[in-house]
Amino acid sequence: MFDSWLKEANMIGYVTLGTTDLDRAAKFYDAIAEELGTPRMFTTDTFIAWGTPDGPAGIGLCYPHDGNKMSVGNGVMVALQAKDKAQVDRLHAIALAQGGTCEGPPGPRGDTFYAGYFRDLDGNKLNAFVMG
What we know:
The protein is an alpha/beta fold. Helix content is about 25%, strand content about 35%. The chain has three helices and eight strands, in the order H-E-H-E-E-E-E-H-E-E-E. A hairpin with a 5-residue loop joins strand 7 (about 115-120) and strand 8. This is Glyoxalase family protein. InterPro entries: Glyas_Bleomycin-R_OHBP_Dase, Glyas_Fos-R_dOase_dom, VOC_core.
């Protein structure tokens, strides 16, 4: 069921995460994006976006618009779709090498889901996954 839903779930254009240090966070996400073959779309003094026009969902990174300190959402996670298990492993390793923290090493979760979980430098939770 999840596998068929995932193939049809194209309603999300992008996800934006907060940061306390845009330059530091950009290096983390540049490394992840490079492995995924996803370029930066644009960069300003307060916002960076990775993705491709009319492509799959992208990621934005910014300072909170309201000027308050960024915080990590409880229960919020961004899932990055990998092409295979080896790429899941590489993305998890890249995240840790860039200073991220492990939230669960790559491995099977059930019969058809393979994922590795990590947090970025600001504590935002992500995973890299593949179905099948």
